[in-house]
Amino acid sequence: MDKAKTILKNIFGYDSFRPLQKEIIGNVLLKNDTLVVMPTGGGKSICYQIPALLFEGLTVVISPLISLMKDQITQLRQIGINAALLNSSLSSEEYKYNLESVKNKTAKLLYIAPESLAKEEILNLLLSVSVDCITVDEAHCISEWGHDFRKDYRQLGSLRKKFSSAVCIGLTATATPRVQNDIVQNLEMKSHKRFLGSFDRENLFLQIIPKQNPFEQTVSFLNEHKNQPGIIYCFSRKQVDALHEKLSALGFSTRPYHAGLSDDERNLNQDLFTRDEIEIIIATIAFGMGINKSNVRFVVHYDLPKNIESYYQEIGRSGRDGLRSDCLLLFSYSDIAKINYFIDQKENDSERLSAKLHLEAMVKYSESEICRRVPLINYFGEKYDNSNCGMCDNCLGDEKEKTDITIYAQKFLSAVKRTGEIFGAGYVIDILLGNDNDRILSNAHHKLSVFGIGTELNKKQWQLLVRQLINKELLSRDIEFGSLKHTPKTTNVLFKNEKVFGFIKVHKTSPAKLKRADKSYDTALFELLRRKRKELAEERGIPPYIIFSDKTLAEMAYHYPADEESFLRINGIGNKKAESYGNIFLPVIKKYCAKNNIKEVRAQIKTNTTKNHQPEKRHTVIGKSFKAGASIDRLAEEYQVTKQTIVRHLAKFVDEGNKIKTESLLNDLSIPRDKQQMVIEEFSKESISSLKPVYYKFNQEVSYDDLYILRIIFKSGNL
Fold first, then answer.
1. Are 60 and 146 part of one and the same domain?
2. Residues 257 and 299 in one domain
3. Is 615 helix (H, G, I), strand (E, B) or coil?
4. Comparing C-alpha atoms, which of 433, 542, 602 is closest to residue 77?
5. pLDDT of residue 456
């Protein structure tokens, strides 16, 4: 492991391992089969690349996409690692050169597609050398229960038998416990260890809004992200092309990507995006798995994804550099019907049922009114306890006032019963609104007593009510047909007058315009470095992020490194990159500092770590910084979040038993002193695990922002 740590620093340019990397590498070096489930951007590649450099023999990496393999090869060669690729995209000269590099053992890694293993030439090549490690990337493709099953992956189990002395590593960003078991079984991992990284991508802001005018909603979002690279996912090729044309006409830098385009056009558009020649790629789900672009700043789902795995994987393509990225989903019930239509075309019953279950989970996630991360992360088998992540619309939005919606609930539940519990939400709503369409007339449902009794609410309000009734388990939705049915809880509302509280006001339908704090690094210098990176990338024919990530450039623009020693201390810069690029980027920084009279270089402080080199949780780092004297404004600027988010982090820090000085927090309160004291007294009487009782106790006159601050003051003992 000492050698592994040296490689991490000198070759990859990092001072310490990220969570689980050290343990995974140690397990692989002991030749123990290993399953790694770690989110996109979590550092999975290093878990097999470092062992590959320490093993005497070859490491074979099985990857599903040519573009992904090429990207990995380019990045490895940039840092001085000899890696080979064998597939049909190579010229005969390149193919022969790579073949020889494997035979003569100069290549430490060989990247191949699963289909290549069926070729006798490839198999004979592998049998002629010593194979120490078999790495299966995107391992969820091996499972029929996964969202991206590929039959070619099924032969990988038999490959294990031919190379029984090689250790096997399975890597994936998305695998439920069931899929994990399937991977282990199919790869014949008899004695293995599983390493499950947290699925929480703290730097992703998650937002879901009702889809009403999707084009205008998307334009509004894009105007908040000008000059930033991003991806827009659409359900169909037709939608991709239409959206590309409309956005291009407005001056947005876009290109389409879908299976209907020629290979040349798809490859060109992808290259333009990865090389920062265009800003936005508009795509079907065919795009993304092979993209390793680290500086994607946003992902928009123009249409509802078919399952949570796809959604998680697609939003995971943003923010891989660790900087904040925004993920917007436009949600509509018509999208559910559209997906169900295609699911119903499947002939295999088990495939159809599996797809329905996946879709139902996606819909429940979209309809949830609690912290987005709770249902999302829990879906993958990880327990997420934080009730307020500070990085989703539900957590940062204003707490919604609940009202008595019992009468509306009774009307809807009655209509469901009187129509036989065999219809979906749209049909029942039409009855309540008195819409005498052909279907209702043919069923004679216009004669029911519930026909037309719900005109006091509009269609969108009734849709909002339905979502709440399902979430409260007063209704269940049939997975196969979408029909609504009563549950055991329904009786209490219909016949025992049990009250139902919820919301009638439709949630806002425009993307959140959250305050984006000024970056703590020097943005003018960052732009100069970004231009220099682009210039170099064009000269060398590689994507800019392969030279340096945005995060590495941001560190340069914060610390102003003045010599090779300080340049090497920047995260992501190892010996090879310092040698290749130090004499190019350092003069840019020095010239900028001289021109702007910047004499004092900011001290370079290594990432906060625990004794086990595990990065501390963000709320802990923020809490400690606040204790050390940093203001809320300063922390909001440094972490590019709102002051409200910093307060939430401080609240969690204090909830864990830490004490902080709270005098400065008093300036952020908006209520008078006497009201502050009344709230503090209420905290001393009641359990303070939830702020809602106190919020309603004061008739909603004290904001949640004030309540959070006052609870921090109370729990810190500074009254």
1. yes
2. yes
3. strand
4. 542
5. 92
pLDDT greater than 90 at residue 623: no
Question: Encoding tokens for residue 629?
Answer: 């004297």
**Residues contacting 306, CB < 8 A, separation 6+:** 147, 339, 355, 358, 359, 362
Distances (CA, A) of 663 to 467, 495, 659, 716: 43, 54, 13, 11
User: 383 and 260, same structural domain?
Assistant: yes
How far, in Å, CA of 124 to CA of 133, rounded?
17
Mean pLDDT, the chain, integer: 85
Angular region, 365: left φ>0, alpha ψ -120 to 50, beta rest: alpha
Cα separation, 628 vs 198, whole angstroms: 29
How far apart CA 715 and CA 189 sit, in angstroms, is 49
Q: Same domain for 496 and 392? A: no
Residue pair 531/497 in contact (Cβ under 8 Å)? The answer is no
Instruction: Pick the last residue of a domain from 561, 595, 629.
Output: 595
Q: What is the largest CA-CA distance in the chain?
A: 84
Tell me the CATH number at 639. 1.10.10
pLDDT tens for 245-303 read: 999 999 999 999 988 888 889 888 988 898 889 999 999 875 655 567 888 999 999 99
Sign of CA dihedral 223, 225, 226, 229: negative
Task: Give me the percent of the chain exceeding a pLDDT of 70.
Answer: 91
The pTM (predicted TM-score) of the whole model is 0.69
Domain coverage including residue 218 = 204-396
Closest alpha carbon to 416 in 476, 341, 479: 476
| Residue ranges with strand state E in 139-239 | 167-172, 192-196, 204-210, 230-233
Q: Using DSSP, state whether 255 is helix, strand or coil.
A: strand
Q: Are residues 488 and 414 in the same domain?
A: yes
| C-alpha 379: how far from chain center | 14
For CA atoms 456, 460, 461, 467, give the dihedral sign.
positive
User: SS3 for 561?
Assistant: coil
Q: Let me know if residue 613 belongs to a domain.
A: no
**C-alpha 88 chain-centroid distance:** 32
Instruction: Give the list of residues 6+ apart from residue 499 with CB closer than 8 angstroms, or none.
Output: 404, 406
Same domain, 271 and 377: yes
Q: Report the alpha-carbon distance of residue 34 to residue 611 in Å, rounded.
A: 24
What pLDDT shows up at residue 614?
44
Q: How far apart are the C-alpha atoms of 377 and 233, rounded to whole Å?
A: 22
Q: pLDDT for 429-480, tens place per residue?
A: 999 999 989 999 999 999 999 999 999 999 888 988 998 898 888 998 887 6
pLDDT per residue as tens digits for the range 93-137: 888 999 999 998 899 999 998 888 888 888 899 999 999 999 999
The DSSP bridge pattern shows strands 403-404 and 501-502 to be: antiparallel
| Range with lowest mean pLDDT among 422-426, 466-470, 634-638 | 634-638
Q: Identify which of 85, 167, 182 has the alpha carbon closest to the alpha carbon of residue 134.
A: 167
The answer as to whether 508 is a domain residue is: no
How far from the centroid of its chain's Cα atoms is residue 527's Cα?
A: 26
Q: Compute the residue count for the chain.
A: 719
Answer yes or no: is pLDDT of 640 > 90: no
Domain containing residue 102: CATH number? 3.40.50.300
How many domains, in total, are found in the chain?
5
Q: What is the DSSP letter of 312?
A: H
Query: Which tokens belong to 414?
Result: 């009655």
Structure token pair of residue 350: 């088990």
State residue 718's pLDDT score: 58
Whether residue 165 sits in one domain with residue 84? yes
The pair of three-digit structure tokens given for residue 561, joined into one six-digit string:
């490194």
Q: Provide the token pair at 59.
A: 């490491």
